[in-house]
Design goal:
With 327 residues, the protein is α/β, with parallel strands linked by helices. 43% of the residues lie in helices and 13% in strands. Helix 2 packs parallel to helix 3 and helix 3 runs parallel beside helix 4. The radius of gyration is 20 Å and the shape is globular.
């Protein structure tokens, strides 16, 4: 099968090219930056370039995007050009080329301020039913691109699946306070309880979505690690997350002490992947319990695929404030 992967020089794009190549698919990788996993260098905002790349393609995996860390360095117009117009051109060329399925990588950032509980309120229970309230141009443009996918399914019959992925980047956190409060791997491990997913599992979700796209037609799915928490935990997660985590994982504190790690005192949201597991048949492997098992055995916490892809960063330049610019 011939497939097209946009953003093939990025974290997820490279991972997709690696995995699809292992499955013996004919992979067209496109990106504005060259890499060993990019066969065609060009922009998704160039329809003629896309038309050439789309010939004979059956499945499009659209991962190319401007990300949250770009908000401080790129204009709103650039976000609109890449995240909205680029997606529009891809959809148009996909329909013209007779593509059978279109898998769009979105983000849980579309929920924005809807995930921020007020003082004294319980943690947010984030499912697909939560109404998005984007808080920046990144979330807004990704949400608009989701709606374009739905429109092209409705008007042209193109099966489109939207995957709202939680964070899977290996780089340090983009918030200075968190970088200073936690070791990098410590913070990422904590996040597997409520807002992180392993790169290998994201790839699995992409493949599951492609398999089910023709049956489902259209759907939006949260792609995140399975959380142990239940709605009845939400109030306590805001005030004593350490105790709540201990309820589900009684031995975790001893392991954390060995590593000189700490649990977050407060958890303000919980991403729920139930719909993706049920409708896509997706079975994520990496969750907090699995990480604890690896930690206890002294094994690597990351998947082999994530290790192969490694860190890429979001900017070519460095900043006086640290690894990220200040907006």
């Amino acid at each position: 099968m011939k497939v097209l992967v946009t953003g093939s020089s990025g974290h997820l794009g490279e991972a997709m090219v690696r995995r699809l190549s292992e499955l013996n698919d004919e992979v067209i990788g496109i990106d504005i930056s060259s890499s060993p996993f990019t066969s065609h260098v060009g922009s998704i905002t160039d329809p003629s370039f896309l038309r050439t790349c789309m010939e004979g393609v059956e499945t499009v995996f659209h991962t190319a995007t401007l990300h949250k860390p770009h908000v401080a360095t790129h204009s709103m117009e650039q976000f609109i050009d890449t995240n909205i117009t680029g997606t529009l051109y891809l959809l148009q060329e996909a329909v013209a080329a007779g593509v059978k399925r279109f898998i769009f990588t979105s983000t849980t950032s579309v929920f924005g301020d809807a995930m921020k509980p007020g003082p004294g309120a319980p943690a947010a229970w984030v499912t697909e039913a939560l109404v998005p309230v984007p808080k920046n141009i990144y979330g807004l443009t990704k949400l608009a691109a989701e709606d374009l996918c739905q429109l092209f399914h409705k008007n042209h019959g193109l099966p489109c699946i939207v995957l709202r992925t939680s964070r899977f980047f290996p780089e340090d956190d983009d918030e200075k306070e968190k970088r200073e409060a936690f070791q990098g791997e410590n913070l990422k491990a904590n996040e597997f309880l409520f807002r992180r997913v392993e790169l290998e599992d994201v790839v699995g979700a992409q493949l599951a979505a492609a398999e089910k796209a023709g049956i489902l037609g259209f759907g939006k799915y949260i792609i995140t690690a399975s959380s142990p928490f239940l709605p009845e935990d939400l109030a306590d997660l805001r005030t004593n997350a350490v105790q709540v985590v201990a309820k589900y994982y009684p031995g975790y504190q001893e392991l954390y002490e060995r590593c000189d790690w700490e649990m977050s005192a407060e958890i303000d949201r919980v991403y729920v992947n139930e719909k993706a597991r049920k409708e896509l048949g997706w079975i994520p492997k990496y969750d907090f319990g699995y990480l604890l098992e690896q930690l206890k055995a002294g094994n690597e916490l990351r998947s082999s695929l994530a290790k192969q892809v490694g860190k890429k960063g979001y900017h070519a330049q460095s900043f006086s404030e640290g690894p990220y610019p200040v907006d």
